[in-house]
Fold this protein.
Amino acid sequence: MNLSVKWEDAVEAPIENDLCTRIRRSEQALMAHHEAVLRAYGLTMTQYTVLLILSRQGGMSGAQLARSCGVTQQSMSSVLTNMENKELIRRETSPVHAKVQIAALTDQGQTLLGRAYQEVIILERALTSAFTPSEHAALCELLGRATTVLIQQTRQATVSPAT
């Protein structure tokens, strides 16, 4: 499939028609909402995501959490140190690898997550109710496909040099 487009055709189309622009605007709106809600709880989006992941999956290493949150291991190390200082998580040596620390929720972290989640879920419910069940399912499927393409294109962009 030839994905090339003539520059003249691309610049004449309204930018609102670009899927990447629409996805980015949605992502910005989502992040702005979550950041505003989470700020009241003293949490960043990454910290909230760590709490949510740990509550659902149990203890995880910093590397696993970094991959799940889409941040670098160095960034995650800083996030986890901050969260440990706030007593939201605790870290213990892995029984498998002595050099690996496993992060787990504390009771305080679980309580804070529960309170923050009650506000975050309001947006999820509002978005869900904006669509019929079939539209919701279709949107989820379409976003999944879009994410797959975005990941594939990113891998290709990092492998092949620009000409």
User: Anything to note?
Assistant: The chain has a mean pLDDT of 88. DSSP finds seven helices and three strands in the chain. The helical segments are 7-12, 19-39, 45-57, 62-69, 73-85, 107-129, 133-159.
